[in-house]
Design brief:
By secondary structure, the chain is α+β, with helices and mostly antiparallel strands. It folds into 3 domains: about 30 residues; about 180 residues, no CATH class; about 30 residues, no CATH class. The chain contains 6 helices and 13 strands. The longest helix is centred in the first third of the chain and has 27 residues. The protein starts with a helix and ends in a 12-residue tail after the last strand. About 5% of the residues have low confidence.
Amino acid sequence: MFDTRFIRAVALASITAFGCASAYAAQSDMNPAPTAKDWADIAKLPDWSGVWNVNETLQNTEITKNPTPWNPVAAKKIATMLAEEKAGHPEGLYVNCLPEGMPTWMMIYHNAFEFLFTPGRVTILGEADGNGQRRIYTDGRGHPKDPDANFYGHSIGHWEKDTLVVDTVAIMPEVRLSISEAAGVPSNGDMHVVEHMHLVGADEFHDDLLITAPHVLTKPWATTRISYRQRARKYDIVQGVCLQGDYTGVIDKNGDHVLVKAAATGDGVVLPP
């Protein structure tokens, strides 16, 4: 005789599997596989290929000519940080291997970065932050109703001719709004960034940012960052792993190559090998 408990268990498993499959199918409908037309449409977008670097001279000029509208509390903190930097002992805001986050990554980033166009998304890839990346969804979706805040926030975008308009929310309140690697304050929440990304000429990229940060700014701040394309392929994207500098390679007792914590001073400064 068949064990009826077994039959009931198989039936329940089948129902559960069917339910899961149905739920999966419903979710898949939200992200349909790209069509041949979707891939062909990418060819109609502007050419942002290659490796890009921020023009640091223009970046510093922009910061000087277009100062950040800090509120009095934030302005006092920034003044102290800038004075410390001028005195030769800056605080060093980005030495803990955490991502710079948004919008700082687009504003004071010194490493090379590149763009990846795929159907429904533009991805920005960079060297720092353990090869950080931003996902900008261009498939028509909106922001989640209850997004999980993170370093880069949640970004959605759409094309207006050759300009990518990007809207970013859900940035962690701990993420700093910075004007240099030595001067910046946490946004303390509710930061909202709108960007207009476009080319000026063949090899100059402009990111026009409008930053709203009500807890540290007196008004929205409009600022632009300019990057240039490395047409000569002098640079390529390399792997950047921040914590790797805290380790050294050794061969263990089993003959395996492994990473171990490097010798350091009492305040954490890694000693040379």
